[in-house]
Design brief:
Layout: H1 3-22, H2 37-61, H3 67-70, H4 76-81
Length: about 100
């Protein structure tokens, strides 16, 4: 982001925090009365989603390039469906980089 984007974002947050003080509402919970609580809560939630999804992607979903070769099947399509992938010759990647 460019520098003026950050200044604009900071101005929007500041205006929101000031406007929150003038809005009259009955607070349902004790923490609803803390100035900027919902701003901080939303930011923390977004950060948690990003951190957890990166962790899950790295440790739960991603596989090494030779994962299927080491674990018995180089064709993940065939491993899932039982049908060889027609794009692969004999179910194995060819020497020509396919």
């Amino acid at each position: 982001m460019r520098r003026w984007h950050w200044w604009l974002l900071g101005a929007v947050v500041a205006v929101t925090l000031v406007a929150e003080q003038f809005a009259h509402s009955d607070h349902d919970y004790w923490f609803s009365g803390i100035p900027g609580f919902w701003v901080a809560f939303g930011f923390a939630g977004c950060v948690a989603i990003i951190v957890l999804s990166k962790w899950y992607g790295k440790h739960g979903v991603q596989r090494d390039e030779d994962y299927y070769a080491r674990h018995g099947d180089a064709d993940p399509h065939r491993a899932r469906t039982g049908i060889p992938d027609p794009a692969l010759e004999d179910g194995m990647p060819g020497e020509d980089g396919r």
